[in-house]
């Protein structure tokens, strides 16, 4: 009875907790709000082909996820819940895909374990709560590789065609990375299996390539026809090749960057990783060895590709977590790790500091904020915002969950206790610390957006070197980016307007504005209401 009903209840619990929490904190600048604002502008302006945000063409990504957001906006309103709902649903869909694929590969118990381990990892829960493209992309990348695994297992050509179709869909989500990852993993696996001959002979290349192109090309062809070489330069050279060759927007890091990201992302399973990879390497022979090799290649290809790329962000490697879940489920199915009590204590030692920091944050926050030195960070912590009871409650919940893990005495339930702990870790960090971070970081922008929304509808909003789509999304109006020359022209025009900028840019303001009291001065941001006819 325990084994039959527990997985279903855990899946339902994750879904209900995620639905209850994805809208609790506002969308964060920059990525979440720029995607949400792009979707809104497409819907409001009826511009369904070329993504635009605040009047600027946004060639960075194809628009499929924006369409999903627009459907959710139409049903649930223009809010954080609707913007994040596609990410939640596709995270759930990836888990269901792993459930279905795992059942086909090794039975129902394996499928359920894989799906729930996947949902329990912190990065998966984080992406389910983020209005960005990666949760949607990860479903299609995982789908391509799961169908490839099934093709290896069952040998039916139709499975390989479905893998190609899903890889094409992945290209329609986020560009070339959608097929580069599956192609490299499949190609390396076939080369390691029997050499080049089966690589060329066994795969139904012609029909698979046709389905891939049908799924991948339509939007690219339409936008190329509409915009010509400008699109190719921006999308291919700047957004893909440029990101690989140079750090963009300050997002760089050393060779170890993704090792740190991986360690944090797989929580609470970090202490299990040495046993996991050791077990996978040992089992590189036989039927289980096929699965182990594909998953190790999956993880290795992604880690290597994005380590070599110069632009780095934590979610770039998030397509590997289905592979980690498959490896964990396979290793547990074959043989439980020795010394489970040591793994439990190691997990507790990793998570316990997080729990105590949250429990004590209201008392240690003044000391922590005193360690800040960066000017923008100083402006943030200088706000009269303090950790509240939700942070303390979240820390207490996490501490109790850790104690409950240590109290387990039945080895066969250890993996289920880890899954529950992982789900609780997501809730405590995303709601407790996430809510406090939102008040600190997004609070000034939300206050600015409320001020903008209350201003006369015909009063334009300009931004001096500041791209803050939160103000546009929550303020209900677009803004135009300007420089000092354009600002001088506006001051000579005689029409009133609003101007937002960072506090550090205030020294570049002309005297006609700099001498005025701003409508808002908080958290490193300034908002002015400018009436040129009145002398500024």
- Share of residues in helices: 55-70%
User: Would you identify the regions where 5 or more consecutive residues have pLDDT less than 50?
Assistant: none
Beta-strand level of the residues, as a percent range?
under 5%
Structural class: mainly alpha
Our measurement of the CA-to-CA distance between the termini, rounded to an integer number of angstroms, reads: 74 Å
Enumerate how many helices there are, as a single number: 24
Biggest pleated-sheet summary: 5 strands, mixed
Query: Per the principal axes of the C-alpha atoms, what is the gross shape?
Result: globular
Mind explaining what this structure looks like?
The protein has 536 residues and is mostly helical. Helices cover 69% and strands 5% of the residues. It contains 24 helices and 7 strands. It has helices at residues 2-21, 31-45, 64-76, 80-106, 108-120, 122-128, 134-154, 157-174, 177-194, 196-201, 205-216, 218-227, 229-245, 257-265, 273-282, 286-308, 321-334, 340-369, 375-381, 389-406, 414-454, 469-475, 484-493, 511-514; strands spanning 52-53, 56-57, 461-464, 480-482, 497-502, 520-522, 525-530. The chain has a 5-stranded mixed beta sheet with strand order 4-3-5-7-6, with helices on both faces. α9 (177-194) crosses α16 (286-308). The radius of gyration is 25 Å and the shape is globular. It starts with a helix and ends in a 6-residue tail after the last strand. The relative contact order is 0.10. The mean pLDDT is 89.
